[in-house]
Amino acid sequence: MLIRAGWANTDPLLRDYYDREWGMPVRDETGLFERLALESFQAGLSWITILRRREGFRAAFAGFEVDRVAEFDAARVDALMLDTGIIRNRRKIEATVQNARAVQRLRESGTEFSELIWSFQPDVSPVPRDDSEVPTTSEEALALSKELKRRGFTFVGPTMIYALMTAIGMVDVHLLGSHRRGCSGLWNTDGTRVGS
Fold first, then answer.
1. Which positions in this protein are listed as binding Zn(2+) (predicted)?
2. pLDDT of residue 195
3. Fewer CB atoms < 10 Å away: N or C end of the chain?
4. pTM for the whole thing?
């Protein structure tokens, strides 16, 4: 039997996400913005709730193309509040628009979104033996959360940011013994960076 995180064993959609996507490096702006938005929407909800609506989110938020989302106005936000294909939470919808504009401002300042996010990658990754040893935040997540807030982002608390970091492979919290441990190609199974 393959070893997976407990959450990945509760639904076939979660299992597929775990086996194919979770923990793989994401560095492109659109991909990172989508993950940031989805993690924001997930706050207070289960991840399966978000995954089941992922295509609805993509349709509602213009494929998570930053420049298109940044143009959303109050009327578009009101329309999204009627969209049953997403989580209809005004604060989270408005945060996604605000964060798209924050990504644009980063670009204008000469900093790429991916560059900023990945500059907070830690030197060492956790080595959890079971789910109880998987952290929910880190010093790097706290620092990145503060920096994103300083740059005008919202709904980017340290727990959510750590979830983002695990989702995009910045840290590897796959359990020791999992067939996915080290799948990102960035981490050795002992938690050290590849090539270090």
1. 174
2. 87
3. N
4. 0.96
